[in-house]
Structures are given as C-alpha cells and as structure tokens.
Amino acid sequence: MNPPKQRRASLPSKLFLILPALLLPGCTTADLRLFHPVGLVARAEMHYTLILVITMLIIIVPTLLMTIIFPLRYHHSRNAKYTPDWHFSLSIELLAWGVPLAIVAFLCYLTIKGVYAVNPWAPGILANAPGASQPPINVQVIATDWQWVFIYPDQGVATIDDLVVPAGRIIHLQMTSTSNMNGFYIPQVVPMVDAMPAMESKDAFELNHPATYTGFSTDFSGAGFSWMQFSTRVVPQAAFDGWVQSLQSSPSQLTYAAFQKIAQPTVNVGAKPAYFSAPDKNLFNEVITAAMQGVVYPVPDSFTKRVSDNSAQGAQAPASPQ
Amino acid sequence: MQVALDGPWSPLLGRLSLAAIPYSNPILVSTFAVVVVLGIVIVGAALRYGKVGYIWREWLTSVDHKKIGVMYIILGLVMLFRGFIDGAMMRTQQLLADGPNSPGYLGAQHGYLPPYHFDQIYTAHGTLMLFFAATPLVAGLGNLIVPLQIGARDMAFPYLNATSLWLTVSGAALCMISLFVGEFSNATWVGLMPFSEMPTNPGVGVDYWMWAFQLSSLGTTFNAINMIATIVKMRAPGMSWFRMPVYCWSSLTTNIIGLSIFPVVTVALTMLGIDRYCGTHFFTAGYGGNFMLYVNLFWIWGHPEVYFLMLPAFGLFSEIVPTFSNKALFGYPTMVAASFSIGGIGWVVWAHHFFTMGMGPALNGYFSAATMLVGIPTGVKAFNWLFTMYRGRITYATPMLWALIGLVLLLIGGLTGMMLSASVFDYTVHNSLFVVAHFHCMVLVIGAALFAGVTYWWPKVFGFKLDEKNGQMYFWTFVIASLLVFVPLFYLGFAGVTRRLDYIYNPALKPLLWVSEGGIGMYFVSLFYFGKMLYVSLRDQIPAAADSWGTGRTLEWLTHTPVPFYNFAVTPQINARDELAWRKAKGLEGVQPTQYVPIHLPNNTAVPVILGALATIFGFAMTWRIWWLSLASLLAIIVVVIIRSFDKNEGYILSAEDIARMENRIALASIVAEQPKRPALVQVEAH
Questions:
Q1: I need a surface site. Which of A10, A280, B14, B424 has the fewest CB within 10 A?
Q2: What residues of chain A lie within 8 A of the CB of B202, using their CB?
Q3: pLDDT at B642
Q4: Does B100 sit behind a cis peptide bond, omega within 30 degrees of 0 on the bond before it?
Q5: Are the C-beta atoms of A167 and A245 separated by less than 8 Å?
Q6: Is A58 near chain B, with CB under 8 Å?
Q7: A136-294 — its CATH code?
Q8: All structural domains of chain A with their residue ranges
C-alpha cells in the first residue's frame, strides 16, 4: 500500500521540473498576442485581468502551498501530531467561508466596473479617448460563409477580408451575419463579439499608431471556418482618405445582387481581399431583413465534403438561388 | 409538412444507401477492421468458454445495482478510450496543419483530416466524453456505492435502473454506428444554432447526435429519479440525514440537479427535432424563429450539467481523503451546505457561456458576479479537505494520489475559471484554447476523482485490489501527460488560437503544439500502464479484506469483500456518521449476527436490454428517416412496456437458511484468503 520512500520524493520533484520547462516556449515568443494589448479597450481588458488574477492568487497560492505541505507534513512516516477525532472548528469554518466571500465580493465589484469600461456597445473607456472629439468611422460588418464583408457607408466603399481604418479615430462596428453565428475578433484590439443572423451587434475600438493585425472568426460556422482570417490595417488619416478615393473609382459595385453571389458558401484560402465601390446604401439592413424573412445560404453536404480536396483557389459552390 | 431533403430518399431504406458507407476513407476502414476483430475476439471467447448464457443471465439481464454499476463503468471506460483517440487525432491534426506551408495527406489540404472529418471528430469527442464517458462513470460509481453506504439491498427501482443503463448504452451504440454508417454531427457537442438546422446541416450527422443525446439523457433522468428515491427512502435504520456519508449527500444534490435540468434539454432537442423533421422554425434565424432560445435552453441544462458531474467528484474526494488520512472528515455540515450552495448557484449562471452574444454590461455583470459566487463553496470544500489532512496519518495509496492531484487541478481550473467568469477577460479568450484548457482541467478533476473512486472501491466489488505499483505508474504518467497536453493550450489561448480549428494559420506556434503532442504520446504510455495494471491485478487476484484499505470509515467496508448479491446479511443498525469507525472504536467491527431473516430480492429481467435494443433501432430509423421502421420500433417499445406492466413477478425471497449457508461459505473463503499464496477455494454461489 505504501510506495517506497524514494519514489515519493523523486516523482513529485520531477513533476515540478517539467512545469518551468513548459513555460519556456511561451516566454520566448511574441506570439502570445493577448499579453501585448494595443489601444484603450484591449489595454483596459488586460489591466482588469491582471488585477483579478493577482487578487485571486492571494487565496490560490496559500491553498496550493497547503495542498503540497499538508500531505508531506502529515505522512504517516513522519509521526507528526495526530488528532483522529478533530473534525470541526468554527473559527476555521468562518475563515473558510469568510475569506473567499470577501475576495469574491471585491472581484465582483472589479469585474462589473470592468465590463462597463469595455462594453462593446459603448465602451466607457473610449469616452475620453483622443479621437472622441471627431465623428466616429462607421464600418458595417457582414459575416458570410466564410468571408467578412466590410462596408463603409459614409465613404461609399466596401471590401472583403480587409478592414482598413484611420489611426486616431474611434471605429464603430455594426455586425450581422447571413446564415450562421460567427465570432468577430481581433486579438490585442477589440473585445470578441458574435455576429449573428437577423440581429445587429456592435463593437468599438480606437488605435493611434499605424500597424497591421489579423482578425478572425471565433465561433464555429462550418467547413470553411478555419480560413476566416481578415487583415486589419491601421493607416494614417491621409492614407485612409487616399485609399477610400482610389476605391471609389473601382468598377465593381456592391449591389444586393452582387452580395448574394458573395454570400454563397466560399472558402477564401489565404483571405484574399476584394474591393468594391458604391455599396448599396441599405445593404446592411437588407441582409438583416432578409435573414428575418428566412433567407439562408444553404451549405449542401456535398459541398462540405468537397472542402477536403479544394485547390489553392478555394472551393466555390455553384450559385444556387434560395 | 415534410422538409426537403438534400439527397435521395426511398420508402424502404429512407436516406440510407450504399453511399452512406465511408469505405473510401482509410482511417475509418482500418478502425472498422479493428472493431470487427475485437468483436470477433470477444464473442469468440464467450462462445469458446461457454460463457454466453452466463453473460446473458448474470450481467445483461441483471437488475443488481452492483452489476449495473460495473456495466456503466465498463461502458464509460470504453467510451473514454474512443474519446481519447478522437482527442489524439485532433491534436495531431492541429500540429500537422499549422501554417500555410504545412503539407496535406490523405486528401486534406493541410494535415491529414479534411474539415468534414475533423469537425465530426471534435463533435464526437465532446459528446462521447461528456455523455458516454463521464456520465456513465459517475452514474456507475453512484449505483455501486450509494446503496452500500446507506445499507440498502438495491436501488429503489431495480428494473428502472437497468432501463437507465440500457438507454445510455443505446445512445453510445448510435454514436458507434455513426462511425461506420453515414456521418456524425459537425455542429459541436453543444449543437450550434442555427448551424444545426436543415439548410446549413442537411446530413444525418445532427440527427445521430440528437438521438444519441436524447436517449442517453432519458436514461440519466430515470437514474436521477431512482437515486433520489433510494437515498430518501432506503437508508438503514438509524441513518438520519446527518449520519449519511458525504458522498451520498453529493449524490443527492447532483441528482436533484439532474432531475431538474435534463428535461430542459429533452425539450430543447425535441424542438430541434420538430424543426428538422417537420420544417418548423423554433430555432431558425428567420420566420420568427429564435436561436438564442436554444442557446439559453441548452446552457440552462449545460451549466448545471457541469456540477452534475463535479459534485460526485467532490463527494469521492470527501470519502477518500478521510480514509487515507485516517481521520474524520473535517467540517461535515459545511461540506453538505457547500454541495447545496454549488448546486443552487449552478442553476443561475448559465449565460456566462455566451458573454459575447451581446447581453449588455448589466446582464454580463450579473452573470459574472453570480459565477464567481461558486468559488466560495468550492473554496470551502478545498479547505475542508486540507484540514482533514491536517494532523492526520496520511498514506499515499493510489486513490489518495488521485485525490491530491485532483485538488491541485481544481486550484488551476478554479483560478482560470474565475478569470473566465469575469466577462472583461472573457471578451479576449472566449471560444479560445484557453477555455478548452480550463474546462479540461475541470474534467480532469472529475477524471481524477473517478480513477480514485474506481481504484478505491475496486476491491469491494471484485474482492482483490488493483495493482499498486502499476497503478502509481499509471497515475504519474497520466498526470505528466495531462500537464503536457493542457498547459500549452493555455498559452495558445493567449496567442489568440480559437477552438475547433482544423487549420492554424500561425506557423510560429509549432513548439507549443509539439509539447501538447508530446503529452498525447505520454497518454499512450499511461494507457500501457493502465492495461498492465488491469492485467497484473486480474492475474494475481490477491484477496482483499472486508475493510480493504484498513482505514475505511463508512458502512460499505462493513460487509464482505466482494459484496454478496444481497449486500448485507442483516440490515445494519446505524449508530454514528462514520459507522465503521464507530464500531472499530467500540471493538464491534467483527460482530456477527446470531440469526438471519429472509431477504426480498428482485428477479432478473430481459425487458431493459430489449428496450435498449429497440431504442437503438428507433434512433437509427429516425436518423435515416426510415418511417416504417421508426413506427414499428416505437410500437414495439410501447407493447413491451405494457406487457411488462402486467407482469406479476414480485421477485423472490432468500430464506434465512440460505443466507446462513452463504455467510458460512464466505467466512470459509476468507479463512483461506488469509493464506495469501493460495487462491480462494470456494466461490460465493450466484443466485
């Protein structure tokens, strides 16, 4: 029943040697993107997270230490103090309920404060942002199977899988989806929010320095889900204006009919962008209304099976009108 | 009002055709070959040794709670193995399909599994692990131990008990059939909505998932009714509520939760079924449907379901820690209060599973705060276990090691769970591998408790212990493997890697994926030691004493090892919370009854196993829309139940003389058992 003493000592110590070894690949890479938040909203998320974790460690660390020390200290071979019938202590019970209660109360206060600060619909933290004095840039996001359509209603341009925004301005995103639920997420930048068919959801952010980030879908939506990346490019205001102007003369226009073709199941391998001018002013609302009226872009089983042997161009289903 | 089907349909075979057999997929074909060979070996062995009649009479038609418990556990372990293979395939796919230049094999563009196959695998992994591995293991241990701990002869409703088992088996059977006939769902174990609806998921996969889930949850509902009735009505004389072992308390809480939540998911799945079969719009996005209704209903079941599995695990720790600390459980009343608090809070936190679906800060704030409250009673439980060990006499037997690592994992899982419950953090890692790592930490707590429980009570059921040496090797390799697999997943979550990806676009994450894959390799090593442990234990069969671990405290260690089919020769009178410890202190543990009274026992019945078979046929027929077969099997189920209800068989009476004779034989066998090198000469005779 009792293992030899040396195993008892050696195996746990081996175990604890493995833990730091596991941390190494993590520490040496900058790919742990959430540790490098950018912009007010993401930094607020990280800030609250850190305070929460440190507060929790106040209780986790001593408990972990007790979990390690007690079994070693009171192993039968040690002949430590033994009180077989001691089974209740009001003061310990009061501490066992009281300390977690106090810590949880503080955590609740903090998390509620935090959720108002980063609330994707109207982040409290953006109220005092440098860009708050200027009107926001509105972008309408439509998740299709399996691409992202970005419409700039005020600028009169639209893109697929390429979100371009000016630095120093607050970006307001309105989101919906054609058939399935998709999670809209740009790590380091925005809170994750689902884009849902027949509904409108919102998100907001502000970035002050030009850079490029990768966003993607986080809620499974079918065979092409793994390829739902899009680039997020933050550019200076002048470059943004120039970009908009160059698109405005683009020959392909995003009418509702054109959108219906785009919304057919499509795996866009490599997230190749496409650009449009003159998007239908009402396109975003039309997509929501259509979904409410039962319009779905079906994904036949044969299509799902075919995604296995698609070429580098990606699989494109035959257009089948609903 | 039948919906338009994607593909052909015939009145005789429904949607079923030869094309449904995936004979062109080398992975499935080789799996099929392995399953067939295993099947031939098992059936062949049964025939060769003339055991078919024995298996039918003594096991398949048994209503004995111990045999049903063992069959639940066998089902759970087999499904655990399949679920593990699914998990290993997923990790390997993500390792291979990392980055745009990663090669593709077997027709996949990256890795070796195309999305069509990968998506089914992770759906099957989640479904199997929760409904057909964890749930049967929890139900099996409950079946085995609760009646013994409260001094009962059997469950309150033995026939219903067997029916619960065979309904669960029929769900598992449907999952296994889906491997070789047609396809399984690709809509995740939660059934994403509206993705699971006909237009976006026209195949039979979702139907397989739905019926397997539906049948097994029916079984679990029945089991919950049975457990509650047993605990409330069948406690031995003298066992007041506050003399009941903590494991029974946690079993009671868990089954109250189970009884209140499983009907919710039954209704939700029925509504989905009506959508898919009749073309209604309960959960579609359009035509006035509301898929958020499904999301809410599902998680109103889904979150308490977590505690449905977790509370028995806590109960197991509460039995094992005192035994191997040789000390009474610390803080019994607050342990009971904590179980009920966890169960109660568990009902009102469901929406933390969809913080990102736009609830607004007030609701998100409420659900964050409510979720964090769970941390308080959970913390209380951890402290009580720690203070049970404090000033104890601890031995590191395998069950105790599992309990200790369970406690460590609970701290890691608890920390990350509290992080996730803050919606401000959840906005950054929702649906990421961080979440996956967190809930695997938690299910590993359940896993550790179940391995602890199986090892702990194994001698009580089979009469010999599991081999300690290989058991400890299994323990250490399993723990190292778990850390290697899941710690990198926390980091991958911080790298922004989403769950359910068959392709990861960032090739820089390769090292973390390799570490995780190394853990999978380690799991295979632990599997080897698990097998070796079973083999060595079955080969040696060293007889164990009634109080197998020497420091048992509760009632089940009072009766013989292995437990005779009538459990206790005379119904014990309960005098204390830890009855055996009380009797030991008074020097009464060896006292034998002077006379026996006849025992009323239930007869075996083939009805439950027939019902299970018919339910499998019904689920299969509904999946493939073979209407005549669905109707026929449904009618057959109704007829069988009606016939059974006219059965006047009220069991049989075991006479006092018979009991005396059998008790005598057991006493004789235990004398022989005291000479360790000799096998037991006399087997306890089966009825």
A1: A10
A2: 298-301
A3: 96
A4: no
A5: no
A6: no
A7: 2.60.40.420
A8: 31-80+89-118, 136-294
Percent of chain B scored above 90 by pLDDT? 83
ipTM score of complex: 0.91
Residue B14's SS3 state is: strand
If DSSP codes are grouped into helix, strand and coil, which group holds residue B51? coil
Q: Which two tokens stand for residue A180?
A: 């399935």
A 72-111 near B (Cβ less than 8 A): 74-76, 80-89, 92-93, 95-97, 99-101, 104, 107-108, 110-111
3-state helix, strand, coil in chain A (%, to 5): 45, 20, 35
Superfamily of domain B1-289+616-625: Cytochrome c oxidase-like, subunit I domain (1.20.210.10)
Q: Which two tokens stand for residue B598?
A: 């006849």
Sequence-ordered list of residues with C-beta below 8 angstroms from that of B634, at least 6 positions apart, any chain: B618
Q: Where are the domains of chain B?
A: 1-289+616-625
Interior CA angle at B78 toward B76 and B84, to 5°? 95
Q: What is the pLDDT of residues B19-68, one digit of tens each?
A: 888 888 888 888 899 999 999 999 999 998 988 899 999 999 999 999 99
Is residue A71 reached through a cis peptide bond, with omega within 30 degrees of 0 on the bond before it?
Answer: no
Which chain A residues have a beta carbon less than 8 Å from that of B423? 111, 114-115
How many Å apart are CA B139 and CA B167, to the nearest integer? 13
Tell me the one-letter amino acid at B493.
G
- For chain B positions 321-380, those within 8 Å of chain A (CB to CB) are 325-334, 354, 356-358, 360-361, 364-365, 368-369, 372-373, 375-376, 379-380
For chain A, the maximum distance between any two Cα atoms, rounded to a whole number of angstroms, is 86
CB-CB under 8 Å, A81 with B376: no
CA dihedral A119, A121, A123, A126 (to 10 degrees): 160
Runs of H (alpha helix) within B422-551: 423-429, 433-462, 468-494, 510-540
Taking a C-beta distance cutoff of 8 angstroms, is the pair A219, A194 a contact?
A: yes
The tens digit of pLDDT for each residue in B468-491 reads 999 999 999 999 999 999 999 999
| Phi and psi at residue B370, to the nearest 5° | -60, -40
Say which DSSP state A34 is in: G
Cβ contacts from A onto B, under 8 A: 373
Q: Tens of pLDDT along B237-260?
A: 999 999 999 999 999 999 999 999
- Between CA B226 and CA B181 the distance in angstroms is 34
Amino acid at B473: M
pLDDT (tens digit per residue) in A14-52: 444 444 455 554 444 567 888 889 989 999 999 999 999
Side chain identity, residue B529: Y
Do residues A57 and A101 lie in contact, with contact meaning Cβ atoms separated by under 8 Å? no
Note if the pTM is more than 0.90: yes
Nearest by CB: B194 against A7, A180, A188:
A180
CA distance A118 to chain B (A): 7
Choose the mutation target among B498, B542, B582 for the interface with A, i.e. most A CBs under 10 Å: B498
Rounded to the nearest 10 degrees, how much is the dihedral formed by the CA atoms of A253, A258, A262, A265?
180
- Distance (Å) from the alpha carbon of B258 to chain A's nearest alpha carbon: 26
**Pair B388, B366: CB distance under 8 Å:** no
Specify the amino acid at residue A162: D
pLDDT at A318 over 50: no
What are the Cα distances from residue B149, in Å, to B22, B67, B143, B283, B598? 48, 16, 11, 45, 21
As a whole number of angstroms, the distance between CA B545 and CA B550 comes to 8
Please list, residue by residue across A29-67, b when 16 or more beta carbons sit within 10 angstroms of its beta carbon and e when fewer do: eebbbbeebbbbbbebbbbbbebbbebbeebbeebbebb
> Which chain B residue lies closest to A174 (C-alpha atoms)?
B358
Rounded Cα distance, B137 and B447, in Å: 9
Q: Which residues in B lie closer than 8 A to residue A71 (C-beta atoms)?
A: 389, 394, 396, 404
Residue A9 near chain B (CB below 8 Å): no
